[in-house]
Amino acid sequence: MRRLRNTKIVATLGPTSSSPDDIEALFAAGVDVFRLNFSHGLHEEHKKRLYHIRQLEKKTGRPIGVLMDLQGPKLRLGVFAKGPVTLKAGDAFRLDLTDKPGTSKRAPLPHKEVFSSLKKGTDLLLDDGKVRLRVEKAGKSFADTQVITGGKLSDRKGVNIPNALINVSAFTDKDLEDLQFGVDMGVDWVALSFVQRPEDIRTAIKLIDGHAGILTKLEKPLAIEKLDEIIELSDAIMVARGDLGVEVPLEEVPILQKRIIRACRKAGKPVVVATQMLDSMVHAPAPTRAEASDVATAVYDGADAVMLSAETAAGDYPIEAVKTMDRIIHGVERDPSHQLIMNSSHPDTQPTTSDAISAAAAKVAETVSAAAIVTYSKSGATARRVSRERPTVPILSLSAERSTSRQLSLAWGVHCVHTTEVQSFSDMVAKAVRVARQEDFAKKGDHLVVTAGVPFGTSGATNILRVADVSDEE
After folding, report:
1. Residues with a known catalytic role
2. C-alpha to C-alpha distance for 83 and 81, rounded to whole angstroms
3. Is the full-model pTM beyond 0.90?
């Protein structure tokens, strides 16, 4: 099941894609990582989906990543007494903690932590930004606002507060329960929602305790202000363009997307671009040309992965959506200008032995026309460093840690193989040659560039490089 592309595909499972046959068809079409969205569905449903994925993994012999996406806190209005109301620009409108149903003059906002964060001039965005309110006066249990952008409001519409630090944990009681369930099930990645500050990730690190990788969703402007620190604390990043596009001006989203991808490439952390990538394919068999260009742009930018949400979870054409994304990625990566862009946007090599060896591996592989770069890694650090270089040849990652192999399914260009421990470097080289042939990466007479950390079992110590001739190592 070798992929003939480097950029990975993440697909969300849901009502239209949960059976064993559905999951196998999605994987065959090109999915590398499956997303379980805990904003929807019951624990038992997610458990069945994960079971089917692990059975497919056994059948194919290919490590498959599983990402659980936590819902995070959701700020919502209460209900209205007589159905939807229409607000007009210039109107006064009050938000309060009372449980009385709303009217055209006020509405309940049952989140006491919000009011302590508000001050005069703070903007509130309601219903995905369709209605904008500006705070004139705020107290412990109310906020008097002026309507800046009018529109219709109805029961339980969402509330976004872009530029205020809300005194609320990134983990609700539901999230904590979901997280424990997901970790016990054995998910590979945990996606964090509503991250406002680095402290939210530090809390997650303590809660997860190394049992899964932490993927931080960037959807709040305050998180962007601490971008480098958040990337450093995270194992991977998601450009969550949906919520981000509500809280920042629309024209800034593509600029932020490029900025985040550059920062992640510099740090050597996988980055996923998500939200509405092929949105029209929820109900249509083909995307718009603009959507195809959107996916292509993410690939040209150097994203590690692109994600499908409703397209595969609840859409009418889930398999076609994956196949379409696969074709777009494959087409872009065959474009000669793609490699030129990767080279021109290459981050500076860090002044460490590990990064120097990884950069050298990419250069040597290109010089000797190697069939692949083979890494052997316990933690995945060696493979991620080589992936950061965006080499011109495939990356074959060998690891005795099944969880490492599954997590690396998110990394650009990495083909993961779960294997047994090795006892020596010569044993590792022999195994690299054998697996490269078995996985159809190399044939007799080809060269392989092999890199690893010695002594084995030491995480992050990439310090050795070898060019192996396949015919010599049989």
Report:
1. 35, 76, 217, 275
2. 6
3. yes
